[in-house]
Fold this protein.
Amino acid sequence: YCLAKLTAIQKASPHRVSPPCPYVARCGGCQLQHMAYEEQLAFKTQKVAASLRRLGNLKEFTVCNCLPSVSVWKYRERANFHVQEENGILKAGFYQKKSRQLVTIDECLLLPESFIAITQKVMADLNRYGINGITELWLRQGNVERTVMLILHSAYKKVDLTPCFADWVQAFPFLQSIVIINKDGQEEVLY
């Protein structure tokens, strides 16, 4: 096991591409955007095989090739945003690579556009109503119905989202459920 940091590219792989994401240098959400999509699939297949060998202590087995997504972009069905307070304002984003530094984003090439819209609306409302204590915002999307589940993690035992959640449901008709998980890990289904 060894860690390394890329300092220069002497000769680029024929599978190397320019990452199209404007956040790729800072955001820790995408590690493979520098690879052509077909190479990403091969890499993922190799990772599964290596994990089965190392963790499962398997010697002989067959790993099927990683199936491509219907779309190269906007295919992810889940996202875990971290929430931090900065100068009295709650912000959501992803952690910078190998740090706890928050990188806020206005778009993500891998997430459905609805995820960004929901996140921006939720954060704006939490700030508008002075609701604190939210530490994470998770979104899950059904792969058939395309309905979305919003999960908020709280540092407190109780958070009152009454001023917000009816507006969220109205603004996003595909929002199927809203759940808050308190600091003790107890779930409260709000919608």
About this structure: Strands lie at 78-86, 89-95, 102-103, 134-141, 148-154, 175-181, 187-189. The chain has a mean pLDDT of 92. The first strand starts at residue 78 and ends at 86.
